[in-house]
C-alpha cells in the first residue's frame, strides 16, 4: 500500500435510478444511496459503519470492493482508485457478506474454500493448512468434507466467513457478518473476528477491517472507530468511547410503563428538557427511551405520565450506548434490534 | 503468506501469467465439477446421448421423407455432419455465457469472483471447457451413430486429421469468443437471460449452412451467413472428413481449403477483438448499474 490510509473517500456519492414498470412512461426516480461521504481509515484499523437497513453501508462496501461504480467523488482502497485501478485493489481485499448462502453446493466445504484460495494464487500446501486452521477456529473441522449444500444456514455462513479470511487479505470487508445468525453463532463469529484482530495486532501487520453492522453491540465490541451513517450520509465518526462521551452530560433513562396509545406518547418529545424520545409498544406495556438535559427533567415526564393515568413499571438510569448516540444524531432508533444478541 | 504462480505444465506459454492461468484452469476444474456432477446417470444419458441422437433422427426422417430414402446422395452426409457438429455451437457458446447466470443467480458467487484477482473473461472461458468436453462426447456419439446405423460414408483412413483438428480448434475458439460476447450481454440483462444462449444458437442455425446452403436464403439474409465463422468452420470440418464429397453444396465450392482457413482465422481474430471490447464495455456498464451481484430469483 502506498500510504498509511487503507481506505479513503472524498465527497463520495452514489445515486440509483429506479425505473417504474415497463408500461409506465415515468422518468426514472433517483434514490440517493450515498451523499458526500468523506472517510479515512488507517491501515491496521478495525473500522465500523453503523446504521439502519438502507443507510448506504452495503453500497459503500460495494464501491470499495470494486463491484459498483460511484456516481461522484473519489474512493481509494490501498492507495488505488476503485475506478482506474480495480485490478490493483483486488489482490489486497476480500469480503464477507452476511445473510446469504452463497457457494457451490455440490463442492465440499474444503473444496469451496480451496477454490477461492486458488483464485487468489495461494499455493496448495498453504491453502490446505489455512483451511484446516480456520475450520478448526470456527469449529467446523468435522464438516470439512461435507457438501456445502448439506450445511445449515449458520454453518454455510461460517464457511463464507472462513472464505473471507483464508486468503489473509490486507483489507477485509465484513458486511453484516452476523446477519441472520442465531445468538450462539453470532457470538462465535464475533469471537472469531476478535481473535483475528488480536493476532493481527501481535506483530502489528497493518491488516484492516471495515465492518458494517446495524447491531450496536457488534460495533461497540469490535471497532476501533465507528462512523454512524443514515440515509447515505456520515453523521459522526469517532471511537465508540468518544461518541458516547457526547452524551455523558445528558441523563438517559429507560422506562417501562403501562400501555399508552401513540397519541398520548407523542407529546413527550416536546416537553422542555427532553432532547430525544423514542417509544416501543409491547404486549401489556410501552417502553420509553429518554435522553434528558438533566435528571430533574424526569419529574415533568413523570407528571405527564400521571396525567395520562400511566403507571411506571420499571425505571432505569443507564450509561449512554451507541444506540443513544444514533438516536441523538438521527432522532429515531435503529429500526431493528437483536442481531443474534 | 506465500503466494506463488501455480504450476500447470500443460498450460500453453501464452497463458502462463498467474492471473490468466489461474482464471482459466481453476474455472475449468470448477466447470468440470459442476457439469460432471452426474448424480443421475439417466439424466446425463438423456442430455448427452439421447437428445443429440433424437435431434439427428428427426433430421434423418425429414430427409428420408423428402428424398424417398436416398441416403446414398452426398447431400445426406453433408447435412448429417453439419447437424452433428452444430452441437458445439450451443454447448460452447452457452457454456461460456451460462457461467454468468449460474454464478450470479444460482451459486451467488459472481461478486466474490469479481473481487478476486482474476481475469473474468478467462474465468468464463474456463467455465466453458467442461461444456466443450461434454459437447464433444455428444458429437462423437452422433457421428458414430450415423456411421454405424445410417451409412454416413466416413472412413478413418481418408480423414485429413490435421485439417480436422486445425478447423475444430479455430471453430471452437471462435464460438468461445461469441460466447464471451453473450456473457457480456448477459451481465446486463435481469430476466430471460436463461434463454439467450439457446436463442442465439438456434437463430444462427439458419445462417451457418449447417443443413442447407446459404444460397437458399433470401439475398438480403445471406451476408449474415458469410460474416459468421461457423459457415467456414463447418465447411472445413466437412471437407476434412468427407474429402471431395463435401463439394455437394456449391456455396463455398469456389474457395480452396487455404482460403477458407484464411477467412476463418480472420473472422476468429475479429470476434476475439469484438468479444473483449464488448465484454469490457458490458462489464463497465454492469458496474455502473450495480448488476454484478444482482439476483432476481426469476
User: Oligomerization state of this entry?
Assistant: heterodimer
Mean pLDDT of chain A: 86
Number of strands of chain B: 0
Order of helices and strands of chain A: EEEHEEHEHHHEHEHEEHEHEEHEH
Number of helices of chain A: 11
Please tell me the total number of domains of chain A.
Answer: 2
Identify the overall geometry of chain A.
Answer: globular
Counting structural domains of chain B, the number is: 1
Number of distinct beta strands of chain A: 14
Short recap of the structure:
Chain A has 341 residues and is α/β, with parallel strands linked by helices. Chain A has helices at 57-64, 86-89, 109-119, 124-137, 153-166, 183-201, 216-222, 240-245, 262-265, 298-307, 322-330; strands spanning 5-18, 29-42, 46-50, 72-77, 80-81, 93-97, 171-175, 208-213, 225-230, 233-238, 251-257, 274-282, 285-292, 312-317.
Structure report:
The complex is a heterodimer of chains A (341) and B (298). With 341 residues, chain A is α/β, with parallel strands linked by helices. Chain A has helices at 57-64, 86-89, 109-119, 124-137, 153-166, 183-201, 216-222, 240-245, 262-265, 298-307, 322-330, and strands at residues 5-18, 29-42, 46-50, 72-77, 80-81, 93-97, 171-175, 208-213, 225-230, 233-238, 251-257, 274-282, 285-292, 312-317. Chain A has two domains: 5-244, P-loop containing nucleotide triphosphate hydrolases (Rossmann fold), CATH 3.40.50; 249-319, Alpha-Beta Plaits. Helices cover 31% and strands 29% of the residues of chain A. The longest helix of chain A is centred in the middle third of the chain and has 19 residues, at 183-201. The two termini of chain A are 36 Å apart. Chain B is mostly helical and 298 residues long. Chain B has one domain (14-289). The longest helix of chain B is centred in the C-terminal third of the chain and has 33 residues, at 257-289. Chain B is globular and about 55 Å long. The interface between A and B is medium-sized, with 35 and 33 residues.
